[in-house]
Amino acid sequence: MSKKLINSPANAVDEALAGLVGANPSLRLLQGHRVIVRADIDTVTEQNKVTLVSGGGSGHEPAHAGFVGKGMLSAAVAGAVFASPPSASVLAALRAVASPAGTLVIVKNYTGDRLNFGIAVEQAKMEGMAVKMVVVGEDTALPSTESSAGRRGLCGILLVHKVAGALAEQGATLETVAAFAQQTANAIATLSISLTPCSLPGCKPSFNLKEDEMELGLGIHGEPGAQRTKLKPVDEVVATVFEHMTQQTPGYCYFKPEAGMEVALVVNNLGGTSNLELLIVTNAAIRYLVDAMKLKVVRVYVGSFMTSLEMAGVSFTLLNVSLQSILEWLDLPVGAPGWPNASTVEREDSHSIPSLTAVVTDQACFSGEPKTVVGHNGHTPIVSGESSCFSFKSIVFFFALYLTTFPSSRTCVSHDFYGTASVLDSKVETVSHAMKIKSSWFNLLNLSCNSGYSTRHVAGTVLTLPTTMFQRKGKTNQGIFD
Hints:
This protein is α+β, with helices and mostly antiparallel strands and 482 residues long. The protein contains eleven helices and 19 strands.
């Protein structure tokens, strides 16, 4: 049985929903049901705006309850972990957000969700409510045939929530919101890569993956994917994902990219992937889409959106944003706690900025009268002198300047961090040695710089440093430049 921070499996979903509402005053919990509703829902219906309802099994947090708020969902219905919510709760949600303008229900393409939400929609219509339903299935892992249940609904549904929510917020009619929601759903493709299984509270993992294996196209409930392969470097993984996602063989043909096409990219943490890995994957994905596929990546959303409990892995979603006004709808501010802020700055070919280059106006620039160091673009002065205190950035800058100005043999400084500075005859002859020196100086990050200076001659240059910057609690650290 896997470890979980819970009180009991039976209460896990209810306590999680209570935590969400407790942390977000803009949300309310519908009594007697696992339904999260906007706190200002009365204002929304009084303004005669279309309302939106979605939901599904728990265990995919923040979906779907985390996307309830202004500009997105009006209500979300939660089932047990990996189980569709009952139709009675869906109907209760529809009643709670009923609007004269009508309600759009957005569900993922799973049999249980289509059945239970569909029953509730028909019951609501019988009660006189104007309700439409859009089904989202954008998985590209497996071929779609007439005998299959169709493509599975995955993280791409959140983009449908966003577009539909923006239109509803702007006062569009139910027919318009539903039409664009379906059009958006048809323009999305998603594919996942999984490294580990997940486990329901109180249960063992639902399947096994070997230590050196990964699975392409695994479902968010642990459904089988397209293939299992040996774990590869992330660049190869990303290439495999997008090649599979965009293949045009019979039974697939889900997403046909064209050079210059503008797309939005979602890199979704399936639950157990570190932020470090997530950003490495994001970098690889952007580079592949831009360099290999010649696409324009105009929006990137990175984070945990549609998880699968603690499963390690990611899913990639592409949305063709050439549709009318879709970028405007994606960029409209929202009040949902789970939605990220994506940069709207136009992406450049280069992701980096020029490194800082410096010209020293005086060789003995570290002591005496204030001297000027000219930075990038020639107008960044850094002033030093006996009467001023170095900032850490200045110290690191001067040290980096010293290393680059005198690349040959030189004398290095060692400190015991108790105020004593000594000069060691140590030559900088290798890259690894230089990295040691740099690393040791960066260890000074959490040291204070208040007053007092210790002057030492270093390779013919006077280096003036505050003695208090070497004061640090703990044991003496000798020979850090060895």
